[in-house]
Amino acid sequence: MRIVLKIGGSLVFSDKIDVELVKNVSKQIVSLSKNHEFLIVVGGGKIAREYIGALKLIGKDDTFLDFIGMEVAKLNASLFMGAFEDKAPVEVSSDFKHALATVYLGKIPVLGGTHPGHTTDAVSAMLSEFVDADIFLRFTNVDGVYDKDPRKFKDAKKLDKISHEDLLAIVEDTKAVAGVNTVIDPLAAKILKRSNIKTIVCGKEELSNIGAVIKGKHKGTEIG
Ligand code: UTP
Question: Which of 11, 181, 214, 216 lies in the 20 to 30 Å Cα band around 208?
Fold first, then answer.
């Protein structure tokens, strides 16, 4: 299978870089890459939001902030590049063609941000479309898709399986501003729907057994 896997920046960095997580996840991906092709996208997380918040106070515009968020995500992506050993690419991919060429070289491409105006969810969705991925796996600090924001509503229910239409309906109202943090970027939801890409949204715990998630054994949400 060809798999696009996104790791939320918040999983890589909470108070400091989670080196054990980076090493453990990379080891699994390298091992699974004997049977699958992987393309890895990493988010900017807390550090990106710190920089974006500071530069907003300084008075910079949204596009400037987006460029900074993209760079932080690339920095986070470089952690995995560092841990991929002989499967490591020579640099973080800044575009989809470079990422696909890296797959053809037998290496595992890693990406952060690509263009201003969206998030790494949208990067992952566009990349999935471009490389014709069989599946998009998204690991974040929320363990699935809920009918409403679980961080705000105690009675929010996790959904085991939903359609792309339902996902779009849940996220449609989200504002597109730098550093915004939602279940999934609405642009990503639109792209995943138009290409009908099977998507799995899981929490941090499930990163300990990526092989099981690929086989459909997970507690997250399947979209498609
Ligand atoms: P992320 O996609 O990493 O957002 O990009 P996030 O909400 O922190 O994601 P998680 O928590 O890691 O999953 C951070 C910011 O960088 C800019 C946007 O402003 C985004 O909100 N960005 C990122 C871009 O403008 N373009 C990109 O391709 C990627």
Answer: 181
